[in-house]
Each structure stands twice: as structure tokens, then as C-alpha cells.
Amino acid sequence: MTHNTPLSPRPLRHLSDVHRRVLTAAQLRSHGVTAAELTEQCRPTGPWRQLLPNVVLLHTGAPTGEERLHGALLYAAREAAPGVPAQPTAEGPHRPTYTEAVITGLAALTLYGFSATPQLLSVDRVDVLVPRLRRLRSTGYVRILRTAALPTPRMVSGLPVAPVPRALADAVAELTDAEAVRRLMTEAVRAGHCEPAAVVRELTAAKLLNRPHVVDAVDSLLAEGRSIAEDRLYRMVREHGLPDPVWNVDLRLPGGPHLGGLDAYWPEQAVAVELDTRAPRQDEDALWSEYARKREHLERLGITVVYLTPRKLRDAMEQQAAVVRTALMASGDRDPAAYVVVLPR
């Protein structure tokens, strides 16, 4: 006798709708479906279909974008240990735990709400990160990406998703369209998903900075990031009542050498602000040494230098304004600074 619905000692009503529509063969067995019944239900004229190896779609229509994502995670996740239910029980949580499987790439960026990525149903392939030693193959619409260490995922719509910088790097690795790469990177920064330095760090780790179209996009990304950071710096001064500085200047000793450029400078208090927009590239140590030499030289001349990062300006603007205000107030307790020439940069 053929059953159109499973004989289920563990009823499906406690699961959310999508989890009732996509289940693994093991989960179906735990709901009372035998191997013979599963085969019968998945026949060409049956009510179910096999979505991926050992993953079953419990209807015959095309899978939704959400079903495709859950199916990909069910395929890639490590099976629960014996005695541990792979799906939540009636008394347990309403969402499954996808062990050792994280969505990344374009599908992840779509989940984050990127406008430059296709809709979920239009994403041809779902990239899933798994630990390097897992014995698992890409199949169907699922591409398995192995990594030495899984990133700590963010939960987006109940799904484990790689952080934006990692998802972006995995997407860029497969893109050859320079304009598409540039749009994704620009949106990541402009929409506030992450800072440029985090993106460059992931691109460096993925060894993608030897591709000319990626390097060009990174240059645009860094310029975009600096522009956003400068806007935040202007806002900080305006919104937190700091005195107006002179903006974007070069300092020189009278008749002497160039001391360096600054994003903001208060001549009366001899306080300078510089945005630290370094990106973690191979020459980071040399660039940091240059920053340090510049700071030491200015401070020997009695000029206080405050370094602000784009991330601190974004996440803790009030605190950074207090740091600058403290430096301005402390100027009266210091010896007068050396006279310097202030020139527009």
C-alpha cells in the first residue's frame, strides 16, 4: 500500500513551513517513512522529488529560493550524532542546526540585501563553506567550498551566512566582470555592511589581489571608503560641537622639509587628526612604519596627532569626538608647539 503522507511518530507540525517541505532521507525515516515508501513517493509520477542527494522536496513544483537554500544546507551539514535528532523535536527549537555548513558567495550577499546580486531564484549556484577535511562533493546547484577554519556565521533569515567580507571574497573569486566586482565592493562599503580594510583582508587571504580587475576594484573601494570616512569626520565635528579645524592640509617647517598631510588641523591648539585608512596589503608593515615616523616627528614638534579609523567613526562617533575634545582642551597644559607652515593639500 502506498502512502501519500508519511506515517510519522514525530509529527511535522512543530516545524516551520519550509522545514516541512525540505527534509533529508534520515529525517524522513525519523518521521516513520521507510526506504521503500520514500522510493515510491519520489517516483516520476509521485508527490515528492529528490532535490539533492539524500535531500527530498515534499512537493512536485519548482523549489522556492528559500527551499533551495535550506536544501543546500541540509546536503552539506554534518549529520547529527547517533541519538541526537537532526531536526528539532516537538519540545525543542523550531529551527534545525546546520552543523559545519555556512552559506557564502552571491547567495549570501543576496540574503544580506545587496541590490547588485540576483534574486535567490536566479542564483544559479549556492556556495556552501565546509571544513577542509569533510568528504563532500559539489552536486546539482550546490558548490562546496572547503576552508581551513569556518568563519563565525551570522544568522540571516534563520540561515547561517558567512560575514560580508568573506562572502564577498568568495563571490569575487568566481567573477571575471570588472564592473560586477566593482559594484559589489562599492555596495558593501556604501551600504555600511563592512569597512574596506576587512574586504581587502579577505581578498588577500584568498590570493585574489593578483587579478588586475580585482586590484582596480580595490582602488575604487579604498577611495570610496576614504570619502565616506571623511564625511563622517565632518559630521563628527559639526554634530558634536567641536571648533572648526582647517581641513586637508600639508604641514611644513619654515624653509624646511614637508611634514606630511593631515585630514584636520587646529593650529591654535596644535592638534591634528588623521584618518587611518590603511588596507592590510603586503606592504602594511612599511606603511605603518611611515605612519609611526610621521607621528613621532610631529609630536617632537609639540603637535598632538589623533588617529581615527573609519570603523570607530562609524560605531563610536561620540567617543571619538570626546578624544579629540580632550586633546584640544589639554593643549593649554603643554609647551607651545613649533611654528609650522599650513598649506592646502
From TrEMBL:
Q: List the protein's name.
A: Transcriptional regulator, AbiEi antitoxin, Type IV TA system
